[in-house]
Automatic annotation (TrEMBL):
Coiled coil (residue ranges): none
One Pfam family recorded for the sequence: DinB
Name used for this protein in its record: Damage-inducible protein DinB
SUPFAM superfamilies membership: DinB/YfiT-like putative metalloenzymes (SSF109854)
Amino acid sequence: MERLELKLYEYNKWANGQIFNRLKELPKDVYYKEIQSVFSSISSVLAHVYLSDLGWIEVFSGKEMGYSLELQKQLKEETESKNLEEMEAMFLNLSERYRLFFSQLESSDKSLKIANPNGDIMETSVFEQVPHVVNHGTYHRGNITAMLRQMGYASVPTDYGLYLYLKQSGAIR
C-alpha cells in the first residue's frame, strides 16, 4: 500500500497542473499582471512555491537549511522572470526529482535534523515534512485563485476531495 505522504505529493502535483492548465487558457498578460495582493503577480507566487519546493528537496537530500535558503535567494529573480511554459516545465522536472527521491526511500523514512535560523535543531523526517510541502502549495494555490478573481477570472478546483473522486473514477491516473 502506498504511503499517505506519497499520495499527498501526487495530489500536489495534480493540483499544480490544474493551475497551470487554467493559466494557459487565460490571456498571456494575466501571468505577469501586477495587482495589489499578498504577492505582486501570479508569476511571483509560482516562483515562490517552486523555490520553496526546491529548497525542501535539497534539505531532504541532505543539504543544510541555510544552503537551501541561500539557494532560494540566489534563484529568486531568475525564477520570477520565467514565462508560464518555462515555469511549468520547471515544476514538472522538480516533481520528477521528488518522485525519484521518494522511490529511493521505498517504505522507510529518512530522519532529518534541521537547523533553524535561531539556532534550534528540529528533529523530524522526510515523510513528516511532505504534508508541509503540500500544505504550502495548497495555501498559495488559494492565493492564485483569489488573485484571478480579483482580475475578473475564475480559477479551477484543486480540492483534495475532488482529486480523490477523479482518481477513483479513473479520470486521472
